[in-house]
UniProtKB/TrEMBL annotation:
GO terms classed as biological process: recognition of pollen
Biased composition (Polar residues): 812-822
Keyword Nucleotide-binding: yes
Residues in Protein kinase domain copies: 491-765
Membrane association type: Single-pass membrane protein
Compositional bias per record (Low complexity), positions renumbered to this chain: 792-811
Natural source organism: Actinidia chinensis var. chinensis (Chinese soft-hair kiwi)
Name of this chain's protein: Receptor-like serine/threonine-protein kinase
Subcellular localization, as worded in the UniProt entry: Membrane
């Protein structure tokens, strides 16, 4: 391969093609002056992390010089050299050093397709070396340190550890991440991640102009709006601002973890980590959280829907401009009208003028124009009178009209009522003709017949079950019960299962013999409508680790909720009291921790509106017949909207599990649940209440001692419930103890999200040693009567001295009667 002579090259390539179909590699990490790279040849970095060669992503026929992760089995490209100038034949192209530059040449006509393009005074002995960090460096000889050119300065869509996202103050230029055009085309896409040096934050821009997301400023630890991107976990983030440039950079604490940060074709930044055992990229977090928050994701005349797949659809009367692009998840081309407007059609008769299709509950398109009118009718005719007007909206005396393309539309779901109605202009021919009207009539007749039939069946079924007409399904699958039915089912509320912050719970049996738990709510002063709305929202939340709501009763001030019955009761009864000499073994405890985390992660992250539980404690973790954990009582404290940080006015929750921010009175976020969960993990480990009063009246606070053992790397077995006789998986104990400590950090930004807790407990994420939560220390300093648990006291004590076995959360006498003094 030491020649540039065409003939020799052709012969050797011919030879290559027939003798070696498989991977041929230089076996080196360097391209030097006398070497070229062509066809299937590659170079591999010294430690085998990265490989560089020709590659066609997806099934495209275009080839690119790509760098990919050598150790990742599904080929994942990290960098592309010639992203905007593909080649069609990898055998007639070579990558080589020419005049001190790395150049991609077409061997037929010697034309340069791509070049590193730098001007260097002495182009002698320049070599290109692929580093183990994924940096392709051009330098003068092996011993030179200063690179002449490096791929880190020209990132494509992946931000590798050690490279920068930067703003150069001298040249006024950005070094940014840019998405691919689609999943198999690495050419420059519409979305880019930029540095806003003025505010030390990131921005995501659409087409270099429209900013639709910001990370919030960097405070040295986190970005204010992306707490998950904290430095503590696996990254070491740093921000540098000097007279020449500003930039962010990060390193992985553990360089053997393969983690990448990308600007995805979805318009979201994503952090993914490679999992060798499952052979897939695991999504760690992505921003913006919702696909429809990405500006103009569905293109012109497309509408985004967060709830149904695919996210993008064309408006009525429109179809995708390029189906091929849509098939590759590139919706940016948008939609085109299938019929001309009547006003654009010279053949149209007057009486068939354009009409408007009503789209209720929409996020309105960008760039409206206001028109001063007095009524909806005037608004409509003002749009109709100009042929380039494509839509209007009329809301509270405001008339908005749009000319030309409609972008950034979103169909809002459900009943959140924040949307507006858009009137889309369409040719009259798009509206149903006489024939389809008839179809609608027929449809309606058939439809009502079916409804009638269903009603009859329901009535008969209900009769058969001798439920005197008072049990009717409402929204979703919830059943509205009559008070008398529940009175009967619970034998006049005779079998009490427990009490909680919101009322007592009774066991009941429905006429079809299903056993249920009926919660009698106390002091609910919500209006009927609000109550039903909230209950039906709770009813839609279903997850294997959440207790399912089956129905409710609302008659005057009698408000009851009907849940699935959990045979094994609540966690506290297993943990703090011995049941027939049975102790929950370690495996089950771990599964309970994991299941609870999954349930909470679902509440926090996966359902439409974020729900903060506000009262996580063993009493609210129920166990089904197989001891699978289910979180109870969620959604009752308060349903809070999409903005995470809204102050809860009513303070709920149980002392001892309460995060410090409850006491300091700042806004409560989902991280308050994380704190309570962490406190509960300590109890799961030790099998006893976190705070106990000993005979001499001193209060022991277990987490203080436990955290110091974890932080100092002490013997974790000493923390374990003595009844387990040291039978616990050491690795699981280490994970759970560290997670617990992270969860109870004072600064909520340092606590993991429940999603991360799940991943850590699943073994997917590594967890670093936690710092000691400061307030635990202060706690000690301020309360002299509190003593540390000592190793001996924890392993000798016989029965836990919990003085409250009731499940009444609002009182919670024993649990940290100490914390309220601060
Ligand atoms: C290519 O050049 C390097 C020095 O630049 C030399 O060490 C190496 O032996 C040469 N390889 C071939 C195949 O000529
Ligand atoms: C490429 O094509 C093959 C068959 O033609 C198909 O099985 C495979 O899923 C395609 N891969 C991608 C990434 O589209
Ligand atoms: C290199 O410079 C040429 C001419 O100035 C330009 O056409 C080409 O796009 C540049 N290539 C790169 C990779 O910047
Ligand atoms: C940053 O500040 C400078 C001057 O203060 C201003 O000209 C520039 O537009 C600002 N950039 C951004 C992105 O706000
Ligand atoms: C992006 O911006 C450029 C000019 O700034 C414009 O020509 C192009 O049409 C825009 N792309 C889209 C998809 O709107
Ligand atoms: C974090 O990164 C900085 C450089 O950006 C480095 O000096 C420091 O040692 C790193 N810390 C750790 C713990 O890796
Ligand atoms: C900024 O650039 C100048 C000129 O290249 C250089 O001398 C100086 O050291 C740079 N400053 C920093 C902080 O890197
Ligand atoms: C897009 O995908 C659909 C279904 O997968 C297929 O029928 C259609 O032919 C595709 N269209 C194009 C242009 O690739
Ligand atoms: C329609 O509205 C556009 C945009 O405001 C304007 O430029 C155009 O002159 C209007 N056409 C008529 C016929 O009024
Ligand atoms: C009408 O629009 C203006 C400007 O867009 C806005 O400030 C005002 O609140 C709107 N009025 C109503 C009643 O929505």
């Amino acid at each position: 391969m030491a020649t540039r002579d065409n003939l020799t090259l052709t012969i050797s390539l011919f030879f290559l093609c027939f003798s070696l179909n498989t991977h041929l590699s230089h076996g080196a990490d360097t391209i030097s002056a006398n070497q070229t790279l062509s066809g299937d040849q590659t170079i591999v970095s010294a430690g085998g992390n990265f490989e560089l060669g020709f590659y066609n992503p997806g099934n495209s026929s275009s080839y690119y010089i790509c760098m990919w992760y050598k150790k990742v089995s599904t080929r994942t490209v990290a960098w592309v050299a010639n992203r905007d100038s593909p080649i069609s034949d990898k055998y007639s192209s070579v990558l080589m050093i020419r005049d001190g530059n790395l150049v991609l040449l077409n061997t037929q006509n010697q034309i340069s397709i791509w070049s590193t393009n730098h001007t260097h005074p002495s182009p002698i002995s320049v070599i290109a070396v692929l580093g183990d960090d994924g940096n392709l460096v051009l330098k003068e000889g092996f011993n030179s340190i200063e690179p002449i050119w490096q791929s880190f300065d020209y990132p494509s869509h992946t931000w590798l550890p050690g490279s920068k996202i930067a703003y150069n103050k001298r040249t006024n230029t950005h070094q940014r991440l840019t998405s691919w055009k689609n999943i198999e085309d690495p050419s420059t896409g519409l979305f880019s991640l930029n540095l806003d040096a003025n505010n030390s934050q990131y921005l995501i821009m659409w087409n270099g102009s429209e900013q639709y997301w910001t990370s919030g400023p960097w405070n040295g630890q986190i970005f204010s709006l992306v707490p998950e991107m904290r430095a503590n976990y696996i990254y070491n983030f740093s921000y540098v601002d000097n007279e020449n440039e500003s930039y962010f950079m990060y390193y992985l604490y553990n360089p053997s973890i393969i983690s990448r940060f990308i600007m995805d074709v979805s318009g979201q930044v994503k952090q993914l980590t490679w999992l060798e055992n499952t052979k897939e990229w695991n999504l760690f977090w992505s921003q913006p959280r919702q696909q429809c928050e990405v500006y103009a994701f569905c293109g012109a005349f497309g509408t985004c829907n967060q709830i149904i797949q695919p996210f993008c659809n064309c408006l009525r009367g429109f179809s995708p401009k390029s189906m091929a692009d849509w098939n590759l998840s590139d919706y940016s081309g948008g939609c085109a009208r299938t019929n001309l407007f009547q006003c654009e059609n010279p053949m149209a008769s007057n009486k068939d003028s354009d009409r408007f299709w009503e789209y209720p509950n929409m996020r309105l398109p960008e760039h409206p124009q206001s028109v001063a009118v007095n009524s909806a009718t005037e608004c409509k005719s003002s749009c109709l009178s100009n042929c380039s007007c494509t839509a209007y909206a009329y809301d509270s005396d405001n008339c908005s009209v749009w000319f030309g393309e409609l972008v950034n539309l979103q169909q809002l779901g459900g009943n959140d009522g924040s949307g507006s109605t858009l009137y889309l202009r369409l040719a009259a021919s798009e509206f149903s003709s006489a024939k389809s009207n008839k179809e609608i009539v027929i449809g309606a007749v058939v439809g009502s017949a079916v409804v009638l039939l269903v009603l009859v069946v329901i009535v008969i079924w209900t009769r058969q079950r001798r439920l005197v007409g008072s049990m009717k399904p409402v929204e979703g699958s919830l059943i509205a019960f009559g008070y008398r039915d529940l009175q009967t089912a619970t034998k006049n509320f005779s079998e009490k299962l427990g009490g909680g912050g919101f009322g007592s719970v009774f066991k009941g049996t429905l006429p079809d013999s299903t056993v249920v738990a009926v919660k009698k709510l106390e002091s609910i002063n919500q209006g009927e409508k609000q109550f039903r709305t909230e209950v039906s929202t709770i009813g839609t939340i279903q997850h294997v680790n959440l207790v399912r709501l089956r129905g409710f009763c609302s008659e005057g001030n009698k408000k009851l909720l009907v849940y699935d019955y959990m045979q094994n009761g609540s966690l506290d009864s297993h943990l703090f009291q011995e049941k027939d000499g049975k102790v929950l073994d370690w495996k089950i405890r771990y599964q309970i921790a994991l299941g609870t985390a999954r349930g909470l992660a679902y509440l926090h992250e996966k359902c439409r509106d974020c729900i903060i539980h506000c009262d996580i404690k063993p009493e609210n973790i129920l166990l089904d017949v197989e001891l699978c954990s289910k979180v109870a009582d969620f959604g009752l404290a308060k349903l809070i909207g999409r903005e995470f940080s809204r102050v809860l006015t009513t303070m709920r929750g149980t002392r001892g599990y309460l995060a410090p921010e409850w006491i300091s009175g700042v806004a409560i976020t989902a991280k308050a649940d994380v704190y309570s969960y962490g406190m509960m993990l300590f109890e799961l480990i030790s099998g006893r209440r976190n705070s106990e009063q000993s005979e001499d009246g001193k209060v022991k606070f277990f987490p203080t001692w436990a955290a110091s053992v974890v932080v100092e790397g002490g013997n974790l077995i000493s923390l374990l419930d003595y009844r387990l006789g040291e039978n616990a998986d050491a690795e699981e104990l280490r994970r759970i103890a560290r997670v617990a400590c992270w969860c109870i950090q004072d600064d909520e930004n340092n606590r993991p999200t429940m999603g991360q807790v799940v991943q850590i407990l699943e073994g997917v994420l590594e967890v670093n040693p936690p710092p000691l939560p400061q307030s635990l220390q202060i706690f000690i300093d301020n309360h002299e009567h509190i003593v540390f648990f000592t190793e001996s006291s924890s392993s000798q004590s016989s029965q836990p001295q919990s003085n409250s076995r009731s499940t009444d959360s609002s009182q919670a006498k024993s649990t940290a009667s100490t914390s309220n003094k601060s």
